[in-house]
């Protein structure tokens, strides 16, 4: 399977705490990527902001 891989990085926002309870947006992203899109993701809590790494099956874009 070929994958579309992309990275998302948030910077310049308020300080974040990785131990807090996930909010609605986080739960929505998790459910969409993993369940609806059959993808994979990784969340990284960096000192300067939050990073996401996403992998989605290329067939979602090509219809294959």
Quick description:
This protein is of the alpha+beta class and 64 residues long.
Alpha carbon gyration radius = 13 Å
Query: How do the strands line up in the largest sheet?
Result: 1-3-2
Structural class: alpha+beta
Helix content: 25-40%
For the sheet with most strands, the description reads: 3 strands, antiparallel
Low-confidence stretches: none
User: Overall mean pLDDT score?
Assistant: 87
- The arrangement of helices and strands along the chain is EHEEH
* Quaternary structure state of the chains depicted: single chain
Distance between the termini: 10 Å
* Amount of beta strand: 35-45%
Structural features, described:
This protein is α+β, with helices and mostly antiparallel strands. The protein has two helices and three strands. The protein starts with a strand and ends with a helix.
